[in-house]
Amino acid sequence: MKKWILSHKILSIVIACVIGAGVVCAVVLPIVLSNKHEFSTDWTADENYHWHECTTKNHTDATEKLPHEFNDGVVTTEPAAEKEGVKTFTCKTCGYSYTQKIEALPHTHEYDANAWVNTDESGHYRPTTCGHADKTKDFAEHTFNDGEVTKPEGYKAVGEKTYTCTVCGFKQIAEIPALEAKDNVISFADDLVVEKTYDGLAFIVDSAKVSRKGDGEISVTYKGEDDVAFTATAPTNAGEYTVKATVKGTAEWKGGEITATITINKCEVTLPAGVFERKLGENLESGKFGLTCIDVKEVTNNVVEWVTICAPETYYTIGIHTIGAAALIVDNDNFELNKGDYNAVKFTVWNAPDSFYAGIRDVFSFSGRTELAITTKIANGTVKKGDQLLVNEIGKIITVKKIEKGKGTSATEVETATAGEEVGLLIEGATKAELKRGYMLSEPDKIIGYSKVTVTIRAYTKDEGGQHTPIATGIKPNVVFADTFGEVIGKVTFPEGTEMLSGGEILAGVTIEFQGKKVPAFVGRRFTLKAGGKSIAECIVTAVPHATRVRSGFMLNVPGSNVIEPIELGEKTFAVNLSRSDLGEILKNAKATDEIEIKFINSGKDIAKYTRTPGASEGVYNEVGGKIVGSYLIVDFYGSAGYNLTDHERQWIFTGEDIYIGIGAYTKPASGSGT
Length: 675
Prior knowledge:
The protein is mainly beta.
């Protein structure tokens, strides 16, 4: 290091001398540069040259820099089929080398001379054994033989034929069309019964009476004159029908059908004279009276239940009447009366009510709504949308909001409905808990509830399902009303001198006392007595206690007025039809702010009072002593206060006299004098 520093000092002096005195420096410089290069004995090379590099620090000098001299090259990797080789060239002096590619040798594919590939229907070829699956040889289309039936065709069954390549064995399948089914011949047997007389049994056509070719299944269906479709239900009633035999097709035979007309004739019934002499009547419709018909089992295994008598209008009174047998009509399409010159027969007729009534069958409520739905079959009269009806058993007036005929999605809304029709009524004015199956609906002032009635009774025989022992007076059977679906307990009391009633016997003047409630009744209403789960007798009402039900009334301070007809709803309430009274005019003319007071008076004493005062908001009222429902004012009787009607036992219809009620109406402004 010191030597290196000294040399640099000398170099500096020399440079200075060169600057200061050129002559002197020329003498000194040779002395300084006399330092010698040392070169490496190893070769340094690039792709073109090789040389020796100076090993003295900071020197980049080189010596013997000359171009490479390469040999003829050596194959270092031999070429192969479809694979390149390598040839390496090396400098003879320094050993530097480079490589060149040698072209791959060509590949010769090898094939299996004993094998064929036949993967599809296009053809076959030889496969390679050298691993090149994409190379093929000797490709050619298949050469198929004449084919072999491998699956025979049949009726409604496709066959198969297999073709095989004679070269490679490839198989190809072709369909053989199915055979067409043969035409069938279907016919009814010559001894097929196509006519019979009504016997209550179904007219069933035996499928064995249908002939056909093949073994197809046979089904028999029927259709009446008014039917739109065939059904499997065999006809029972008299009439003309079409029977259809249908044969199901098989593999070999076509299906088909055949029809024929079958007839069920009416059974001719000859009625013995006096057959109706002891029977009870039933009002079926205006001008016709149904009578139970017996003694026909000798003619048929069925019973003609009802025969209709078309009676002259003069017979529209209660009692026993006589009519010629020629006027009788069998009220059953399956029977035909053999009219002849018979003796006259006796029957009972009566006046049926001309007003609406029906019984509640079912009651349905709607979530979040006050209306109820009632289903019923109208027993008599007509009901209209908007009508107000009385529920007799509970003394409530309801309003009909809607009437529907039909069921489910087929139901249609109508304005009116009449006797015999099954309808649904949308009503308001009562709760579901208040309404029961069997309660009677009627016009509020037409049909009356009674605690007892007088009837004519006929005991059922054992053959009719009645009890084996006679009916005794004093029994308390269930009283069943078919027209209103109602049922109540009733005490049966025979007339004095009669203790027992045997099956088939008829007894008049029998009293039925309904236990626990009043039952709407009228002369001619029918009902059945049941005991021990059996129907033991049928009854028809022949009298009610004091049938004159309408009671007169008058308006106080209105001379000559006699228009108020109170309607008894129960032992504690009655109603006044406002649309038929001067009272309605007073209420209609009253202002919304007026106070109203109405008194009901009998024998000089108040029996009820109704008051109405305006409520906290418009259209709201405070009502005491009763309420207004539609066009009716319903009023509660006084209890312990005032006159409690004990003299009349609260059952005015049994007193034998009319009850006269005076009515006083008083209105005044909320602040002012009354009028």
